[in-house]
Amino acid sequence: MPQLDITSFPTQIFWLFLIFVGLYIFVSNWFIPGMNDIVERRDAKVTSDVAQAEEMVKQHRHLKAEMDLILNEAIDMASKIRTEAATEGENVLKKELKKLEVDLAEKTEAEEEKLRVFEAQYRVELPLIIKDLSQEIYKTALSLTGNESKKIN
After folding, report:
1. 3-state SS string over the chain?
2. Number of domains comprising the chain
3. Which of 2, 68, 102, 109 has the fewest CB atoms in 10 Å of its CB?
């Protein structure tokens, strides 16, 4: 095998050294700075994104606090409105109920007055009606008795 021949070692070492130095210069001057630039840009991007995310979290917390404050104010206002509406509704209901009670009392009084007048009128007229009715019954009874006697004869 020619690689293991001692006479070819110096040339192999020379080319090894020359290729290693060339690759070292290439990697150290071009490849590694490019990689370092990429790593630095990524690091800057990550740092920027983390700072932006922290700022967004602060904004979110601030907005959430504002929203909770507004929500609590709205709940308080709705509670006040509901209480006022219930009170107003009760007052209107009481007024209407009083109106209805007064109206009912007036109508009841008017109807009771009509009944009293009707009763007084019929107390006066009842004896006359009874008298007329008695006379009619008496006449009818007499006429039946007279007809039966004629029929018998």
Report:
1. CHHHCHHHHHHHHHHHHHHHHHHHHHHHHHHHHHHHHHHHHHHHHHHHHHHHHHHHHHHHHHHHHHHHHHHHHHHHHHHHHHHHHHHHHHHHHHHHHHHHHHHHHHHHHHHHHHHHHHHHHHHHHHHHHHHHHHHHHHHHHHHHHHHHHHHHC
2. 1
3. 2
